[in-house]
Structure formats: structure tokens, C-alpha cells
Amino acid sequence: xxxxxxxxxxxxxxxxxxxxxxxxxxxxxxxxxxxxxxxxxxxxxxxxxxxxxxxxxxxxxxxxxxxxxxxxxxxxxxxxxxxxxxxxxxxxxxxxxxxxxxxxxxxxxxxxxxxxxxxxxxxxxxxxxxxxxxxxxxxx
Length: 140
Known about the structure:
Number of helices: 6
């Protein structure tokens, strides 16, 4: 089972606070169910089942209110959470990468090559700190 970081201040963020409960659950659902590059294979039926509501592509535009947070691509078969990699994975350009960072980088390369996404789509300019525990330190 994978583990993910969560931004605890999201509950005070005006954007998140103003979402209807169904949209809040959907945001949490896609953050928990995307891959290590922040990409979720769109399955509105399954998402609706898990969150106990209905969801479709039109309703997702509310998640982008005020800032582009998600992007549909691949003929709307995939959804990208734009800040996911920076928040969860950290700087994938460092000299010493963890296995998680390496796998994320490979996924990002795949999406860029196969779907025409860019590094800007993944917002890979930030350099959030990554904790390198003694057993997680990768080889550069």
C-alpha cells in the first residue's frame, strides 16, 4: 500500500473551503488514486461509487477555479494533477534520487513522449525538499 503526503492547511484554503463536499471528496480521491507522476486514469463511474456522488468532466472545471490544478489529456482518458510531483516527490533533478523519484521521472518521461505533455505541465520547476532517510537514499 502506498503512502502519500497531505497538505493539512487545505482545509483553510479558500479554494478548497468553497468547494462543495462532492468536489472535495473527488479532489482527495484523485490525489490518493493517481500514479507517482500525478496522473489518474479517468474512471468517473468508479470515482462516483467511492465518493458516493456523481462526477463527470464538466463538474471537474470547478477544481480549476482561480488556478489550473488539473489538466485532462489523452482524449480525456487521463487527468494530471499539476503540482503533484513537486509536492509528493520533490526535486527530481537532484544528483541523488530515491527509487520513488526515479520511478516518477520514468512515468513523466512516458507521458511527455506518448501524450505530448511538457515539463511545464508537471510544474517541475519547484524544488521542494525531499527527506533522505538512511535507507531511502538513492544512487545518483
